[in-house]
Specification:
The structure is a homodimer. Chain A is of the alpha+beta class. Chain A has 2 domains: 112 residues, Creatine Amidinohydrolase, Chain A, domain 1 (3-Layer(aba) Sandwich); 212 residues, Creatinase/methionine aminopeptidase superfamily (Creatine Amidinohydrolase), CATH 3.90.230.10. Helix content of chain A is 35%, strand content 22%. Chain A contains 10 helices and 20 strands. A 6-stranded mixed β-sheet of chain A has the order 4-3-2-1-5-7, with helices on both faces. A 4-stranded mixed β-sheet of chain A has the order 8-9-12-20, sandwiched between helices. In chain A, strands 15-18-19 form a 3-stranded antiparallel β-sheet, with helices on one face. Chain A is globular and about 65 Å long. Chain A starts with a helix and ends with a strand.
Chain lengths: 336, 336
């Protein structure tokens, strides 16, 4: 029995001149089968889809996989039986790539990743749940003590509310450290402002939100610029628009105030099974936005040796942008 | 200035006929520079080592990198300037691999991974700290309620005690679910037995421990077989011995009792910056054990639809095995 999902992949394969598709990336295996592998697993799509997984995971996979399953034994046998040209993912162990390309024509493709960009109603529901869990986790949290203590509290709440793990390493960057967008967490005392970038995972789907707690006029001024950049970017979102244009709008607002050099990352990214998925919303992005995509919009201004401010929300693209995050943005810090 | 570390890498490069080494893998970058990258970063070793990192991470990297640093701009320019033959890692984006191999001879190598197998006194100290944090986290924990609630408690304790994150997704697999070695966590009520597989990260280094809380005679019988397998395996550990032999000893004990088919994974693995590193202790492993390696020994018996038992300790190889874990193994469960 061929599901509609597999049929649509077979269509895309035909369009790209691909006879067999071999899938190693865990997120893609999870997407296709519902089974999140934690050891060597492969999906091969020729006329139908077949999941190979290790003996150790057969039991777990047989409970959760919705495509036929067999034990993984020899990669060479799998590769030998492929029909060419073979579709491969962008990142592969070099030795596997060599084996495939010695036997078959290969075509790097993003068929699964393109399907994953467009979320089904179920996927949107899972993402919304992941967002709700993350938002509820932040409510009434006490922002005091050490950065890692606040993170421990927040992650405890995430897990208690049903997030299997944090969607990524929670960022709590306060004081001068907030000027580093991906600051690793410290055991230093919380200072102001406090950038909190966190997410939950619900049923395999992620959320990714940032809020910045501010304290004074100087921070508030920068906060308002970032907020304006975010709002203007969200306003222009609609199906058919270039992802790079959304980035340009956010960057433009920040540039008007003279902080272009302080906005040192892209405006956003797709989000789903992985925290960072296609499409990217950056200067050089070639993606167009489409209905059903879920993206983040997260401008920021980072002033070295002073502080940084970032605001990040999760957006579903319908006829226009629909914010899935509801948490208020205007948060002030009272450090006792 | 060339550090002793880089000098030893240059030696290995010469032995393998490699002129330039290009490093993409984050764990290898962390090992060489002390900086854990969270975006596109590369280290190139020719006569000296140079770290390229994204604009966004320059500030963070300049605080923590102990090798010279420059901003990452164009991969093509970096590749163009390499001198061949070029040493590459096992797993690479195919497009990058193609670019390198079109311009240069390439040699897949594990120079950095081989260095990483042998831990320095500092690295052993960090691992010991990661073990101590994990062990202290389990002490006095209440094993009741739902699996994910116990995991939330445990991970809260890990983080509060200074673990930047869990070393991996904590496994709490109870009742029938304990027969899946890598069971994903559930929100079901705790049953017996309870397999807990967890680890801390201290200063970038991991621990990885498993304890099984048992309740009755039937479980105790299997527990004792697993314990005997572990003890016998640990007894034969010494420098120069084959890693596969240690696996054979553990597998042999379990086989004697008729459970060979129920030991469905390898006996252990190296541990350090990554939870799973070289050497592997499996049937087909080609590694020999050496002084300074830190490995896990983790036999298990998994009986489908009944239960599973695993015991895992972290071992430093000196003249013989030295257990770094100290937590008692004989743990009984009292579910109220």
């Amino acid at each position: 029995m061929i599901t509609m999902e597999i049929e649509s992949i077979l269509d895309s394969m035909q369009k790209e001149g691909i006879e067999s598709l071999i899938i190693f990336k865990p997120a893609n295996i999870t997407y296709l089968s519902g089974f999140p592998p934690s050891s060597m697993s492969v999906i091969v799509i020729k006329d139908d889809a077949l999941l190979y997984t290790s003996k150790m995971e057969m039991e777990d996979a047989s409970n959760s996989s919705n495509i036929p399953l067999t034990e993984f034994k020899s990669l060479i046998d799998i590769i030998k039986d492929l029909k060419g040209p073979v579709g491969i993912e962008k990142t592969l162990p070099v030795s596997i790539y060599k084996k495939i390309c010695n036997l078959h024509d290969t075509k790097i493709n993003e068929i699964i990743e393109s399907k994953r960009m467009l979320k089904s109603p179920d996927e949107i529901k899972y993402i919304q749940n992941a967002i709700d869990i993350a938002e509820e986790s932040l409510l009434n949290i006490e922002i005091c003590g050490r950065e890692n203590q606040v993170a421990a509290d927040l992650e405890y709440r995430l897990k208690s509310l049903g997030s299997i793990r944090p969607a990524f390493e929670t960022i709590i960057a306060s004081g001068k450290r907030s000027s580093m967008p991906h600051a690793t967490i410290s055991s230093e005392n919380i200072l102001s402002p406090v950038v909190i970038d966190w997410g939950a995972v619900y049923n395999g789907y992620c959320s990714d939100i940032t809020r910045t707690f501010i304290e004074n006029e100087e921070q508030s001024e920068i906060f308002n610029i970032v907020l304006e950049a975010q709002q203007e970017a969200i306003k222009v979102i609609k199906p058919g628009i270039k992802a790079s244009y959304v980035d340009k709008v956010a960057r433009g607002v920040i540039g008007e105030y003279g902080y272009e050099e302080n906005f040192i990352h892209s405006t956003g990214h797709g989000m789903g099974i992985e925290v960072h998925e296609n499409p990217t919303l950056s200067v050089n992005s070639n993606f167009k936005l489409e209905k059903g995509m879920v993206i983040t919009i997260e401008p920021g201004i980072y002033i070295k040796d002073k502080f940084g401010i970032r605001i990040e929300d999760d957006i579903l693209i319908k006829n226009k942008a629909k914010a899935l995050t509801k948490l208020k943005k205007d948060l002030s810090l009272n450090i006792n």
